[in-house]
Amino acid sequence: MLADLVRPELQRLPGVVRQDPDRGAAALAALFEVSDAAMGVRLINLGLVS
């Protein structure tokens, strides 16, 4: 999954969701139809969360 696809969607999430990596990953996972764990790993690998 390309950072160019994920980054804009991450920015569209409400601030409270973006500040909680688990909630952010879950919201993006639902959007991209992948598991929460897979999205969490992708966000870390893309350097979008630590």
Can you offer a commentary on this structure?
The protein is mainly alpha-helical. The protein is 72% helix and 0% strand. The protein contains four helices and no strands. α3 packs across α4 (36-45).
> What is the end-to-end distance?
18 Å
Number of helices: 4
Largest sheet: none
- Count all strands and give the number: 0
Task: Furnish the topology, listing elements before pairings.
Elements: H1 3-12, H2 15-18, H3 21-32, H4 36-45
Helix pairs in contact: 3-4
Key attributes of the depicted protein:
globular; mainly alpha; 50 residues
Quick structural summary:
This protein is 72% helix and 0% strand.
